[in-house]
Amino acid sequence: MNVMSEEETLQVELAELRRRHRALDDEIADMGNHLGSDALRLRRLKKEKLTLKDRISRIEDQLYPDIIA
Length: 69
Fold this sequence. Notes:
The chain is built from two helices and no strands. With 69 residues, it is mainly alpha-helical.
């Protein structure tokens, strides 16, 4: 049985979060190109995108900690 290390698990999660973030970015851009888009839905998508960005940042901090010399 192949068990992934914590770092590998975080890498997989990071890749998925980045993919979802890009997809939301595309969806938001598409909505912005259409007049009469649902403002509430657009606001929710932007909030979700920010939440994903925060999660991505936290995982990146775990994987690539700043080393102060």
